[in-house]
Amino acid sequence: MVRDLAPADLESVVRIDARASGRRRREYYERKLAEVTRDTGIRISLAAECGGTFAGFLLGRLYYGEFGLPEPTAIIDSIGVDPDLRGKSVGRALLAQLETNLRAIGIDTIRTEVEWNHLDLLGFLGAHGFAPAPVLCLAKKLG
Prior knowledge:
Elements: E1 2-4, H1 10-21, H2 26-38, E2 46-50, E3 53-64, E4 72-81, H3 90-104, E5 110-111, H4 119-127
Parallel strand pairs: 4-5
Antiparallel strand pairs: 1-2, 2-3, 3-4
Helix pairs in contact: 1-2
């Protein structure tokens, strides 16, 4: 079952992220969940449950014209699936519901960023139609 992400999901999101990343980022997710559930804009963040157990999450936002992009775009900030439930179509269900919701409101582009060596996530996203975008992300380290 896929549903809207709620503030009460914070601990489950932190737990799944910590299992996947090896670090607890409670403050980060507390801030992100507050943003995506409190803001008055259209909410696109989702949670997945398997048999009543929190199985995964997708945090996203809609942007209208940021970075010089003329069309409205959905951005996936974070996606996570309980490691014990990987391979059970949880991530696929989250993406499918997101796509359905976005099409219904006329959004036709989803963007995200992935570390180039995060091969599992790159493979997952590639299998679901994601490909390199025709933009270049630039960064500068401040010494």
